[in-house]
Write a structure and sequence with these properties.
19 helices, binds pyridoxal-5'-phosphate, 4-stranded antiparallel sheet, Aspartate Aminotransferase, domain 1, alpha/beta, 470 residues, Aspartate Aminotransferase, domain 2, 3 domains, 7-stranded mixed sheet
Length: 470
C-alpha cells in the first residue's frame, strides 16, 4: 500500500526563503519581484499537491530554484515564433506571407527606435500626410494619378466600396464572387460597406450585355475581382476590363478592379507565369485598383488603392480611412521595397519573395541531397528519407493553378515502422523543435519542400536536426 504523507510531513521551504536564496536573486533581477513571487507561489502549490498525492519526492532548495527558473523562462517565451516554412507555399498566409528584404528590415528597426516624420513635412515644418511618403513611388510604378495605403487589401476593398457605393449598386460578374481564405467574401464585404451587390451573368460565362443590362440610375461601380484562389476552365467567357471601361464611361459610372496580388512587374521576365500588373490594369482604364502589399509585391501587410486623383481624395476624406490607416512600421517597410522595383534587373536577387520564387532547381536539389542522409540518420529505420522533385506554389491566391518545380525531402514510414500514425507523429516532432519545422502531408508522405530554406538558414536548420533523435 502506498503511504500518503500527511500535511505535516510535506516539507517545503517558505516563499520568503526561496526568494531570499542567492539563486533567485538573478531571477528577480531578470523577471522582477512580483512575477518571480507569483511563479514561486504557484510552483510551491503544485509541489505541495504532488507531495500530498505521493507523486513528488522532497526537493532541495536548489532544485526548487531550478524549476522556478525553468517556469519563468517558459512563460516569458514569445508566442509568436520564427519557423521554417517547408510547406512549399512561398506566400503562406498562416505563416505571415512575404519575408522582407534587408533594406526594409533596417528601416523598420530605425522606425521602432526613433521619432519619424510620419505626418510632418520637413520642408515646410507643417503637418503632412502619411500617404505622401510612398505616393510618388506608387504613381511612378503603376502609372496611376494617386494612391493611398490601408491596413490590408480587405480594408482597401471595404473602404473603396464604402466611399464610392454606399447605398448604391455595384455590378460584379457571378464568376468573380470569390471567397478568399479567412472569411473575406466579396458579397459580405459589399454588405458591410453599405453597397448593394448586383450579380450579373452566370458562374462560367458573363457577357458585356450582362453588365449593360445591369446598369441603372442607382449604379455606382462596375467591379472586377481577381479569381485569386480558383480558376474557371472549359466553356467560359468573362468580360475584359478594356471592354468594360467604355461601357462604364457611356453611363457615367466608375470601374474598380480588386487585383489581389499586387504585381508591379511582368513576372515573365523572371521565368514565372505572367500575372496582370497594376500598371496594365491602370493603363486599361480602371478608375481604381486595390491590391495587397504582402503577396507578390513582397512587402509588409497593407492594402494599396491607386487610381484617379479625385476618387482617391474622396477615399482619404472618408472617416473609415482613419480607422484603417497603417502605422509607421508599415510605411517604413513599404518604401524600401517599392524602391527595389526601380531596378527590375536586380529585383530577383534583392526582393526576397521573388528570389524564393525563382530559386534555381539545381540549388534546391543539391541541398536536398545533402540533408537527406543527415535526416535519415537521426530518424532511424522507421522512416525512409529521399531527395525528390516536388511542386511548390506561390500561394496567397496568386496564380493558383501554376505550380513551380521544386526539390526537397520526402519522408515515408518503412515496413519496419511500429509507430501508429508515423507521419503525423513525425510532423508533430518537427513542429516541436526549438525552431519549428512546418511541412505538409499527402500521399502517405511527409513533404519538406526546400524552396524557402535559403543557404543563409541551411546550417541553422541542419544543426537542430539532432534534437529529433529519440
Ligand atoms: C488576398 C485577396 C484579398 C484580401 O487581401 P488581404 O491583404 O489578405 O486583406 C482581397 N481580394 C483578393 C482578390 C485577394 O486575392
Amino acid at each position: 500500500m502506498k503511504t500518503v504523507p500527511s500535511v505535516q510531513t510535506v516539507r517545503l521551504p517558505s516563499v520568503d526563503r526561496i526568494l531570499g536564496d542567492a539563486a533567485c536573486a538573478a531571477l528577480i533581477a531578470q523577471y522582477g519581484r512580483a512575477q518571480t513571487l507569483d511563479a514561486a507561489r504557484a510552483l510551491l502549490a503544485s509541489l505541495r499537491a504532488a507531495m500530498l498525492a505521493g507523486t513528488q519526492a522532497p526537493l532541495e532548495l536548489s532544485e526548487i530554484a531550478a524549476q522556478l527558473a525553468q517556469q519563468l523562462q517558459a512563460q516569458s517565451r514569445s508566442s509568436l515564433r520564427a519557423v521554417f516554412n517547408l510547406t512549399g507555399t512561398v506566400l503562406h498566409t498562416n505563416l505571415g506571407r512575404a519575408l522582407l528584404p534587408d533594406a526594409a528590415v533596417q528601416a523598420v528597426v530605425e522606425a521602432l527606435q526613433w521619432p519619424m516624420n510620419l505626418e510632418f513635412d520637413l520642408e515646410t515644418g507643417k503637418r503632412g500626410d502619411r500617404d505622401d511618403l510612398v505616393e510618388e513611388l506608387l504613381r511612378e510604378l503603376t502609372g496611376a494619378e494617386a494612391a493611398t495605403i490601408v491596413n490590408n487589401n480587405a480594408a482597401a476593398v471595404l473602404l473603396m466600396l464604402n466611399t464610392l457605393a454606399q447605398n448604391k449598386e455595384v455590378i460584379v460578374s457571378r464568376g468573380e464572387l470569390v471567397e478568399i481564405g479567412g472569411a473575406f467574401r466579396i458579397p459580405d464585404v459589399m454588405t458591410r460597406a453599405g453597397a448593394v451587390l448586383r450579380e450579373v451573368g452566370s458562374t462560367n460565362r458573363t457577357h458585356r450585355a450582362d453588365y449593360a443590362n445591369g446598369i441603372n440610375e442607382n449604379t455606382a461601380l462596375l467591379m472586377k475581382v481577381h479569381c485569386s484562389n480558383y480558376a474557371i476552365t472549359g466553356f467560359t467567357k468573362s468580360v475584359e476590363l478594356d471592354e468594360l471601361v467604355p461601357l462604364a464611361a457611356e453611363h457615367g459610372v466608375a470601374t474598380a478592379v480588386d487585383l489581389g496580388s499586387g504585381t508591379l512587374v511582368d513576372l515573365a521576365q523572371y521565368g514565372l507565369p505572367h500575372e496582370t500588373t497594376v500598371r496594365e490594369t491602370i493603363a486599361a482604364g480602371a478608375d481604381l485598383v486595390t491590391f495587397s502589399g504582402d503577396k507578390l509585391l513582397g512587402g509588409p501587410q497593407c492594402g494599396v488603392i491607386v487610381g484617379r486623383a479625385d476618387l482617391i481624395a474622396k477615399i482619404k476624406r472618408n472617416p473609415l480611412k482613419r480607422a484603417l490607416r497603417v502605422g509607421k512600421l508599415t510605411l517604413a517597410a513599404l518604401e524600401p521595397v517599392l524602391q527595389l522595383y526601380r531596378a527590375p534587373d536586380l529585383l530577383a536577387e534583392r526582393l526576397t519573395t521573388l528570389r524564393l520564387l525563382t530559386r534555381p532547381s539545381s540549388a534546391m536539389r543539391a541541398q536536398a541531397q545533402e540533408i537527406a542522409p543527415q535526416l535519415q540518420q537521426v530518424l532511424g529505420d522507421s522512416y525512409a528519407v529521399t531527395a525528390e522533385a516536388m511542386l511548390s506554389q506561390i500561394g496567397s491566391g496568386a496564380l493558383p493553378v501554376d505550380q513551380l518545380p521544386s526539390f526537397g525531402l520526402a519522408v515515408r514510414a518503412t515496413a519496419s515502422c511500429r509507430i501508429g500514425n508515423a507521419l503525423g507523429v513525425l510532423e508533430q516532432r518537427l513542429r516541436g523543435l526549438a525552431m519549428p519545422v512546418i511541412g505538409r502531408i499527402g500521399q502517405d508522405t511527409l513533404w519538406l519542400d526546400l524552396r524557402c530554406l535559403e543557404s543563409a538558414h541551411h546550417d541553422r536548420f541542419v544543426a537542430q536536426l539532432a534534437q529529433l533523435q529519440s
